[in-house]
# Entry
Amino acid sequence: MVGSFRDLSVWQNAMQLVERIYDRSERFPRSEVYGLTSQMRRAAISIPSNIAEGKAVGGQCYPRHLKIALGSKSELETQIELARRLKLLNEGEAQQLLDETAVVGRQLATLLKSLPRY
# Structure
């Protein structure tokens, strides 16, 4: 039974993704600290944050927050692809991050579909 957002596997996986994004982006050039590094970190953080906020508020806000998390997931995928194209991430790193992001996206979509319609 899910009592808290912390019990949701999607939140747990999203938190791991944030950690991985921080780890990988730590090696980006300093010139990217206010650019792609910041953008990727904010998009990644937005995913578990919106899951948590939506779960806490509940009601009609929950699906809306899950949709925002899905939007942030898509932003992050775009930023990972850009980092790959700019050679800030190698192919293996980028693919691993994209795979993890896809898992979170599928979990979010499944959770969203399981909610009652308001």
Q: What stands out?
A: The longest helix spans residues 61-85. The mean pLDDT is 95.
